[in-house]
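Hey L., structure's done. Input below.
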Amino acid sequence: MALARRLDLANTRDSLEDSARKLELAAEGLGVQLNLFGDTGAGAGSGIRSEPNQVARLQFHESTYRLGFETDLPFDRKAERNAYREALISMERRKRSYDEETDNVKLDVRQAYRDLIETAESYRIQKIGLVLARRRVEEQKLLLEYGRGTIRLLLETNDALVRAQNDLTGALVNHTIAKMTFFRDVGILQVKPDGMWEQRVQ
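Output:
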């Protein structure tokens, strides 16, 4: 999907296609140029004045016909050879650029996908950690009610609960960023004129 939808890669691909067309035109300039020409003339007969739109008076059996070829042999084509060489070098450069950019796009998508999976797993773990932190707080409250706990342990578990909540929020933010980065690298993240983004998959 990224190779088909990424606009930066599409621009590089168009540039490569332009270079290929220029190379084809330059190659045509190196070949033999052969032109076919022909003409004919029809007389109106002796003693007959030719007038406009008098087609019936034309004597095609006494017409003259001419057919021939004009050729331009490639003996002195230094300018054309130089143009072809430049076009070939340009196309090879564009092709290397396109191949390199294609590889970079693939690497970007794979790395973005790994980050997406990693942040999703981190978010799942942080959710479990938050549940455990809440249970510890409840346990310390019950122990304190029955005289088996201490204020210090309750405060420590409350601090741990706050850290677990912050960690969960941070994991959610990281996962959201990773998801948007993945959408961007795949080419389905579209920014609307109002600055908001939307996901388009068509």
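Residues 32-73 form one domain. The longest strand covers residues 59-72.

-- N.
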